[in-house]
């Protein structure tokens, strides 16, 4: 541990943490495909397991909660957590009705939605460059959705992915407005309401009497809660505290790239030329919206 801390600075560790979390997030679609239970059930246990693991990690660090900051931000934390829970349900349902690559790319429209809403929700100026990025992403989204090739009959999964993106965009906006709550505390107090919010929906929509024990499915749910949620959220929140925001934003696009590759290589899910062009347009526009190239009167600063 001592050698690790000496040989690697906090910025490098932060980048490794973000990259690791994005690689794991990128395969969550594959994990969902292997679970024979409803999306509501998966979302509930993902949040509940993650909350327990994160609380144990917090207690293990022997550092108390900042109760004043949590009380001050309690309503936004609860609302944000509930949005995360239903965001998971919509995304998991999107995986059922379309390919993993299409669902993931639709989900990564969330930065574009945040940009569109930012003048009203965050009082941020919408620049000409960002407006162009929004336009490119929207055209790409039409290509990805498949409506040009198959009509609206095949667009249900894409629409579910876009709905999940809207919820995630709202969650990002709420988190941007929150002040003083540490990353791991923020995760804990969002995972708990995420699980509690989807619990009634799960109980009302699932026939619990028909549930059967599937060891692979249960194992994958545990993996989703412990590794793909608790561990990844810890790595990501720790990373963004020591890595520049722009770097963290760009590294986050490892997730959809991994999802698209996994969809094509492992599941052999086909991708048309038009869909491929749309994928490049959406990811490219979202990435360019995060990149701020400083200019001087003489040109680009070096």
> So how many helices?
16
Largest sheet: 2 strands, antiparallel
- The topology string of helices and strands comes to HHHHHHHHHHHHHHHHEE
Q: Indicate the structural class.
A: mainly alpha
Categorize the overall geometry.
globular
Structural account:
- It is a single chain.
- The protein starts with a helix and ends with a strand.
- Helix 7 packs antiparallel against helix 15 (254-265) and helix 8 (110-121) runs antiparallel to helix 9 (128-145).
- A hairpin with a 2-residue loop joins strand 1 and strand 2.
- 76% of the residues lie in helices and 1% in strands.
- Strands 1-2 form a two-stranded antiparallel ribbon.
- With 302 residues, it is mostly helical.
- Mean pLDDT is 83; it is low at 1-6 and 293-302.
Give structural attributes.
302 residues, mainly alpha, two-stranded antiparallel sheet, 16 helices, 76% helix, disordered C terminus
Topology:
Elements: H1 2-7, H2 10-25, H3 28-33, H4 39-60, H5 67-72, H6 74-97, H7 100-107, H8 110-121, H9 128-145, H10 147-150, H11 156-177, H12 183-205, H13 215-240, H14 245-251, H15 254-265, H16 273-290, E1 295-296, E2 299-300
Antiparallel strand pairs: 1-2
Helix pairs in contact: 2-13, 2-15, 4-6, 4-12, 4-13, 6-7, 6-11, 6-12, 7-11, 7-15, 8-9, 8-11, 9-16
Describe this structure in a few short sentences.
With 302 residues, this protein is mostly helical. Helices cover 76% and strands 1% of the residues. Helix 6 runs antiparallel to helix 7 (100-107), helix 6 crosses helix 12 (183-205) and helix 8 (110-121) runs antiparallel to helix 9.
């Amino acid at each position: 541990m001592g050698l690790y801390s000496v040989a690697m600075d906090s910025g490098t560790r932060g980048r490794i943490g973000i990259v690791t979390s994005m690689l794991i997030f990128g395969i969550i679609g594959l994990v969902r495909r292997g679970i024979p239970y409803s999306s509501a059930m998966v979302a509930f246990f993902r949040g509940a397991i993650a909350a327990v693991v994160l609380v144990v990690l917090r207690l293990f660090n022997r550092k108390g909660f900042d109760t004043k900051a949590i009380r001050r931000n309690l309503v936004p934390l609860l609302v944000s957590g509930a949005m995360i829970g239903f965001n998971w349900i919509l995304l998991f349902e999107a995986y059922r009705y379309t390919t993993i690559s299409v669902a993931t790319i639709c989900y990564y429209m969330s930065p574009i939605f945040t940009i569109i809403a930012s003048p009203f929700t965050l009082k941020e100026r919408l620049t000409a460059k960002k407006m162009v990025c929004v336009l490119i992403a929207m055209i790409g989204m039409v290509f990805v959705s498949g409506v040009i090739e198959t009509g609206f009959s095949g667009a249900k999964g894409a629409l579910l992915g876009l709905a999940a993106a809207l919820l995630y965009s709202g969650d990002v906006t709420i988190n941007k407005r929150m002040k003083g709550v540490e990353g791991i505390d923020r995760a804990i107090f969002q995972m708990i309401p995420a699980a509690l919010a989807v619990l009634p929906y799960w109980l009302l929509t699932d026939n619990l009497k028909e549930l059967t024990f599937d060891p692979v499915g249960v194992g994958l749910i545990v993996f989703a809660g412990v590794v793909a949620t608790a561990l990844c959220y810890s790595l990501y929140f720790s990373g963004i505290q020591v890595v520049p925001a722009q770097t963290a934003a760009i590294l986050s696009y490892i997730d959809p790239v991994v999802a698209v590759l996994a969809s094509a290589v492992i599941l052999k899910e086909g991708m048309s030329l038009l869909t491929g062009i749309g994928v490049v347009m959406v990811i490219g526009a979202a990435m360019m919206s995060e990149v701020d190239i400083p200019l001087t009167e003489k040109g680009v600063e070096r």
